[in-house]
Amino acid sequence: MSTEFDILQTAKGGGRRARLELPHQTVETPVFMPVGTAGAVKAVPQETLEALGAQIILGNTYHLYLRPGHEAIRRLGGLHRFMSWPRALLTDSGGFQVFSLSDLRKVTDEGVQFRSHLDGSSHFFTPEHAMEVQIALAADIAMAFDECTEYPADRARAEESLRLTMAWARRSLDYFGAHRHEVVWCEEPEERTQLLFGIVQGGMFADLRRACAEQLVEMEFDGYAIGGLSVGEPRELTLEMIGEVLPLLPADKPRYVMGVGYPDEIELYARMGVDMMDCVLPTRAARHGLLFTSEGRVNIKNARYAEDQGPPDPACDCPVCRRYSRAYLRHLMQAGEALSGALNTIHNLAYYLGIMRRVRESMVAENPAPRPS
Length: 373
Prior knowledge:
Layout: E1 5-10, E2 16-22, E3 25-29, E4 31-33, E5 35-36, H1 46-52, E6 56-59, H2 61-66, H3 70-75, H4 79-83, E7 88-91, H5 95-100, E8 105-107, E9 112-115, E10 122-125, H6 127-137, E11 141-143, H7 155-179, E12 195-200, H8 206-219, E13 223-226, H9 235-245, E14 255-257, H10 263-272, E15 276-278, H11 281-287, E16 290-293, E17 296-299, H12 319-323, H13 326-335, H14 338-366
Parallel strand pairs: 4-15, 5-6, 6-7, 11-12, 12-13, 13-14, 14-15
Antiparallel strand pairs: 1-2, 2-3, 8-9, 9-10, 16-17
């Protein structure tokens, strides 16, 4: 099926503002997607995410498969209904989480045998099964099953990982194409249904990345992601890999860089032409007392904030900055109050979402839409 992705403005550096029509939401890009690993963005209720302007969030295939189980979620009406989220959802393939279980997995051409981190039970993911799980979860966007390459990895390891990724991409696409209309909210075959994105791998070898991108484009996915980044490599290498791949991806389909990054990184990548990004950093850092602000990073645990009556970020208009002081947030952190993680997370997400909003607005200012004659 064709992807309804309309580019509205383009910038000199390659960035673009666009609209991605999904079954549950028209997403304005470039967009940052908060991570809701187990069907929840940690410490933040769904109505707060809506108020912050989150358009699309992630669900984690591996974690939801293990608990509560994809069939249970299917019976409960799909992930949107289960978690009471009316806007867009994307589910990852589970490949990165399985990759993280280095001591608990065995990779073969057929798929990946792994043991649950919860109870040690044995499971087997094939590309077909990963698609079956994601169709049951019924997010707006699903991801092809891939094999993520660790860093550092030598060329032989990267080539073998790429071979698996390409074979699994074809198998994912074939199974998904035959079953994509089985999502619980698709009542008629001609209705819009899930999209499937392919994932570019290849380690930190530019020629392997280019080869992967070119082969995936020939398969005609609905969109394309760049995976296997932010796995320990230097930032300069991340930037290099993105720069190698972006020009090879179709201009008329969404481009997604997975698992990045710090605020300055996501702005840079958006201005290069990346349409979608996600990262656990704003939520994970918040739980450890690290706030991202217009004045730089603030470690709210520092004693210097014990009597600071100013807001976390004087330039921020989020609910936390409008109401609470740095002194109070430090007190919550020191006291171990659960509210601490919630308020810190709300601010960090507002900051990340605000970056993308400002990037979109800047593109409108640079390239205003022509007036009707």
